[in-house]
Automatic annotation (TrEMBL):
Residues 173-182 have a biased composition (Acidic residues). InterPro entries: Aldolase_TIM, OMPdecase, OMPdecase_AS, OMPdeCOase_dom, RibuloseP-bd_barrel. Residues 163-172 have a biased composition (Low complexity). Residues 214-226 have a biased composition (Polar residues). Residues 40-369 form the Orotidine 5'-phosphate decarboxylase domain. Pfam families: OMPdecase (PF00215). Residues 161-194, 214-245 are annotated as: Disordered. It comes from Coniosporium apollinis. This is Orotidine 5'-phosphate decarboxylase. It comes from the Eukaryota. It is an enzyme of class 4 (lyase). Belongs to the OMP decarboxylase family. Pathway: Pyrimidine metabolism; UMP biosynthesis via de novo pathway; UMP from orotate: step 2/2. Gene3D superfamilies: Aldolase class I. The lineage of its organism: Eukaryota, Fungi, Dikarya, Ascomycota, Pezizomycotina.
Amino acid sequence: MASAAPHPTRTQTYRERAFLPGTSSLAAYLLRLIAIKRTNLCLSADVTTTAELLAVAEEVGDSICVLKTHADIINDFGDRTIKGLRDIARRKRFLIFEDRKFGDIGETVQKQYTAGPLRISFWADITNAHIFPGPAIVRALKEAAASTIASYNTAVHTEISASPHSTPFSDSDSPDFDDLDDSPGPPHDSANDFLTARSTAAGRKESIVSISTTISQHNESISPQACSPLDMEEGGDGDADRDGMLERLGPPPFLRALLLLAEMSSEGNLLTGSYTEQCVAIAREHRDFVMGFIAQRALNGEEGDNFVTMTPGVQLPKEGQEAGGKMGDDLGQQYNTPTKMVGEMGCDVVIVGRGILAANDRAREAERYRAEAWRAYEERTGLVR
């Protein structure tokens, strides 16, 4: 019996897929971003301090399309972490994916997503969930995301800047970044306030800090800025072209998306067979919120499917070493190369952690992974032969 023809998304470019009917706004934005930056690499930033997280984001940000976090392992996670990471993401042009792996009843996951010390929905573009609690978990997270977006669109947004000779805020007297970034807050009476920050500590000088507050009620960035397929060549002819296209693409929409954990890379995991099939079926019922899957292969199978598959467990042999043999660790993790996962399995974004984090030159190693994964995508789609 002849094998079934591959799904069209296996050979379509990211640019083409961004404009397919029914593609959610955040998924379309990510696909456009990938096409322009020429990177289908996600860094798994499994570090334990804010300083480490911001440092690695700064080092590799130019080579990635997504940065994956585990906020609950960052010892000093807080408002500074959120603001610092979001600032770098805007400047370096990548999305933030909090790898929370929700797996509880609906009311509980809503609170875990929007409240508590992490408040994930306010700063992470993407998160993920298991479906073992049942399909209601998707609906619950979708409702929580909608509530966050509605709050943001009626929020007070404040920017802070200091005069050239001002004294920086210390950890003890710094303002609450809840009021300085995208989080909802109470309305203010005036549009421009000036705060004189005086310190009684010896040797500290008076500082003048300007706080600009904008009160707005809007629905901004609900979909990516308009651009035509002709304006979305795969990275253009050089850095100037890419910079121009990124500028036209604009910042990411303040929307939220979910990935379902359909498969895992660890040895002996139980996310197989009918479980994976149920993930896909549930995703099809929520295409406006579920952007894709964490999986080891592309799961698009029906007409209209355009889910993004992000794949962990990816690693390259060290430079100078030949590929071959089984790669993994003593805790059950199994590794595959970008060429296999993107080229053979049809995955869209490779997730790499220790392979980059442990490198002496993280930026150089991230670029090596980016180039390998991008080459596999170009060969799969026929952009190069």
